[in-house]
Design brief:
Length: 292
């Protein structure tokens, strides 16, 4: 009879531990994803900004050697990420594909000019820098005109700023929610053993002695939960690495390492702190209050 009762108690404690572990692991996965988003927010912002560029329209009958020289000079600039030369024929083909019909057949000739498509680094894509660069480009004798979408630049910069503020607010709220979820999970786990705590008090055990096994359990919960969460995160990242190429680089060991360490530290600290607070609460309760 006693053995049967002990088995039930052990099974109940084990089930409670497994439930807590699953709950903490799921929350830590969400924390890891949030960490990846926050850390890579700047990279995503740079990716969007670097889609902004100039179209440098070249003069008619310009020699190839002059185009090569201009392209090399531009590529040597610290503000240029990449350049692409588009000859008249290629430009006509791309415009025909966009329009869905061959405009050269209708006109009888190709009115387009050869051009250079210039992509800039993110920090040079603000409106003031673009105006300065536009003037610099027009000083080159090979360049006839300079085009870029001014309205699009303004919209992108405004939206990036707004998204950054929104992301900070959402991150703060989600972090609070995640902490609350882990805290409630730990409190429920400790609550199920409140009578054990009271029994240990009645036989004269000190508060630190009573807290020790609970803190050890929470330490393992945090470590195991973080290991499970990090493993699942790694599986998700590598499963969708093609879709996440521009946001999360699987080759960026430093970023992944920071996120995994963040998940581990967060899991351990919050688990142990929540356990410490929950155990202290039940240590202060009288026997009659344990039933409420």
């Amino acid at each position: 009879m006693k053995n049967s009762k002990r088995k039930k108690i052990k099974k109940r404690i084990f089930n409670s531990w497994v439930t807590s572990l699953i709950s903490i692991s799921l929350v830590l996965i969400m924390i890891g994803m949030l960490g990846l988003i926050i850390i890579n927010a700047r990279k995503l912002s740079e990716y969007v900004r670097e889609k902004i560029g100039f179209t440098l329209v070249l003069h008619e009958n310009i020699k190839e050697i002059e185009i090569d020289r201009l392209q090399k000079v531009l590529n040597a600039g610290n503000f240029v990420k990449s350049t692409r030369y588009i000859d008249k024929e290629t430009a006509a083909k791309e415009l025909t594909a966009d329009l869905g019909e061959d405009f050269t057949g209708f006109l009888g000739y190709n009115p387009l000019f050869a051009s250079l498509e210039v992509k800039l680094y993110a920090k040079y894509t603000n409106p003031d820098s673009l105006l300065i660069l536009e003037k610099e480009f027009l000083e080159y004798p090979q360049i006839k005109e300079v085009y870029y979408q001014k309205n699009l630049v303004t919209v992108i910069n405004q939206n990036v700023g707004r998204i950054s503020v929104i992301l900070i607010i959402i991150s703060g709220l989600l972090t609070f929610i995640f902490v609350a979820l882990i805290n409630n999970t730990i409190r429920i786990s400790v609550y199920s053993q409140r009578f054990t705590i009271n029994t240990m008090q009645m036989v004269g055990a000190s508060d630190s002695f009573i807290r020790k096994p609970f803190l050890q359990q929470s330490l393992f919960l945090g470590i195991y939960g973080a290991l499970i969460a990090n493993t699942l995160l790694l599986v998700v990242i590598y499963s969708y690495k093609k879709e996440l190429t521009e946001i999360v680089s699987t080759g960026d060991i430093t970023t992944l390492g920071v996120v995994f360490l963040l998940v581990l530290v967060f899991g351990i600290v919050i688990s142990m702190l929540s356990t410490y607070i929950a155990v202290n609460k039940f240590l202060r309760l009288k026997f009659d209050e344990l039933f409420y």
